[in-house]
Hints:
InterPro entries: Acyl_CoA_acyltransferase, GNAT_dom. Helices cover about 20% and strands about 35% of the residues. By secondary structure, the protein is of the alpha+beta class. The radius of gyration is 19 Å and the shape is globular.
Amino acid sequence: xxxxxxxxxxxxxxxxxxxxxxxxxxxxxxxxxxxxxxxxxxxxxxxxxxxxxxxxxxxxxxxxxxxxxxxxxxxxxxxxxxxxxxxxxxxxxxxxxxxxxxxxxxxxxxxxxxxxxxxxxxxxxxxxxxxxxxxxxxxxxxxxxxxxxxxxxxxxxxxxxxxxxxxxxxxxxxxxxxxxxxxxxxxxxxxxxxxxxxxxxx
Length: 202
């Protein structure tokens, strides 16, 4: 394939959104749909992979100007400086397993190193193929908690409303307690949310 990587431009937004939706559709993030592309408060690396003027992949990394202003505290003593948060990385399903995601990551790393970024942080759910990809790129899993979706009768007995006549029906929650097996058994949709760190070589 004769595809190329370039910086994201505002005119790319419709194709960017379509690529992201299709990339997430068969994953645990299937309902995480954006109608507008995010904008970042800090300097960012926003890249797209294109083929025949169509976006087939994307990556967004927000880069800290002050350590700890965007990313979580480091788990490694060798990377206590500025870090970059990977907010979005996606490849169109028709172009998976062809090196597009890896190529986007490599370009983003090279650009981040020019700004003295020492670490990339990424959060992702429990799709086995995605976890294998991060690990193949050298990321290490350093944290995990649960994303819990409470639906219909699952909400009853767990959450309520202080407003008369208002009843929660669908609730998204985060769980960081000790009773993980109990939570996973009690609710029908529970995902692990995993933090992966990549230490960037100087």
